[in-house]
Design brief:
Length: about 400
């Protein structure tokens, strides 16, 4: 296949530096790099110069943090989507956004292909490529790890030295494979590949060990409007700043650690460690507010939707018709999810200790164990008789009872 111009998802690390050169050498094409600032904490100030020095004809570096929070994190939060009960989808949400801009830049620059540095074993290759197909089915995708003969970091270093690829500023890689953004930090590989091995303190970078967290609890008050967090401790705060502040607060108290073995889309199981301090707090608060404001049938059905929504995001189907339809359902459920939630942070635990809303469906007069004048307890007898009627008739048909 001949390509004239390729847009590469570029991190500036060893993998994508080697890929940049390999694309030019293999296809004789022009390479344009794209780097997304999603709040991963890396210093991106020199990444444009690094890309150009490695052979790129142009380098895009875009701050997408606000869009990431507004259009990817918050919709997933409102859906209550959690993959396999534990994973808050930090990496999975980021990939379709990166893919969106790969396609946009390819269109702007007249490129005929995009490229990524994902391996053939992971989920991210699917997320990138399915998103590209949904946005532009005619745009080719190049995945060098599925094509070249390089098989290890050592192979890449040797390739870089042989071809004069600058390695300055590329630090020694950790024994762990990490991916981070404003929402979370993930850790895989190394000794974590043994699911019996307990992670040491060197694994965690965002959260304190619960044993060494402060000995006094800290209370946090979060305000929501239509399912979206808008305030912290009574003060309005922009989305990016809110998540950053909660990461710091939660990290200090050891909030948001997850150790799980998950089912990858490509078929294998993998063990991963996730740190999601802000996400853990926001999910707990949002769920508590929904329990207060949503009626029983809507709440229970939304739990089913949340499970499917999480699968769609994890599988890379962000731009699918079903995801779009579920977003419409979720948005309808969130109209009354407005109010305030108080959280208690202590030694790795995030506990809801208070919630209130102008749309609360909790009525103390009906719920009280004390005397009331709004609920006639005798009504329950007729309700139970009708509710249990199918079971009574079945028992009769089976010959159960004193008259058998």
């Amino acid at each position: 296949m001949n390509y004239k111009k390729v847009v590469l998802a570029y991190s500036g690390g060893l993998d994508t530096s080697v890929i940049l050169h390999w694309l030019k050498e293999t296809y004789g094409c022009e390479v344009i790099t794209f780097t997304a600032d999603l709040g991963q904490g890396d210093d991106l100030s020199g990444i444009e110069a690094k890309a150009l020095a490695t052979g790129a004809s142009k380098a895009y570096v875009l701050d997408l943090r606000e869009e990431f929070v507004r259009d990817y994190i918050f919709p997933t939060l409102k859906a209550g989507a959690v993959y396999e009960g534990l994973y808050l989808l930090g990496t999975a949400m980021a990939r379709p956004l990166i893919a969106k801009y790969l396609v946009e830049i390819a269109h702007r620059e007249g490129a005929d292909a995009v490229a990524h540095g994902c391996t053939g074993k992971g989920n991210d290759q699917v997320r990138f490529e399915v998103s590209v197909k949904a946005l532009d089915p005619d745009l080719a995708v190049i995945a060098p790890w599925r094509e070249w003969d390089l098989r290890s970091r050592e192979d890449e270093v040797a390739y870089a030295k042989e071809h004069g690829i600058p390695l300055e500023g590329i630090s020694e890689e950790s024994i762990y494979s990490r991916d981070g953004n404003l929402w979370h930090l993930s850790h895989e590989g190394g000794p974590l590949e043994d699911p019996w091995w307990e992670p040491g303190d060197d694994v965690y970078l965002l959260t304190a060990a619960p044993e060494s967290a402060p000995d006094e609890p800290e209370y946090v008050v979060l305000g929501f409007e239509a399912g979206i967090p808008v305030s912290l401790n009574g003060k309005g705060i922009p989305p990016v700043e809110l998540i950053s502040a909660l990461n710091e607060l939660g990290g200090k108290h050891g909030i948001g650690r997850v150790d799980m073995v998950e089912n990858r889309l490509v078929g294998m199981k993998s063990r991963g460690i996730y740190e999601t301090p802000a996400g853990t707090m926001l999910y707990a608060a949002h769920q508590a507010l929904e329990h207060l404001c949503l009626d029983r049938e809507t709440l229970h059905y939304k739990e089913l939707v949340a499970h499917k929504y999480a699968e769609l995001v994890y599988y890379g189907l962000w731009f699918s018709p079903l995801k779009e339809a579920l977003d419409a359902f979720v948005d309808a459920t969130q109209r009354t999810v407005t109010g305030t939630v108080r959280l208690k942070l202590y030694k790795g635990n995030c506990t809801v200790v208070g919630r209130k809303s102008p749309y609360s469906l909790y009525h103390e007069g009906f719920a009280t164990f004390g005397a009331d004048e709004v609920y006639n307890q005798r009504d329950a007898a007729g309700f139970i008789s009708l509710f249990g009627l199918p079971l009574r008739i079945r028992a009769m048909a089976l010959g159960k009872g004193a008259s058998r």
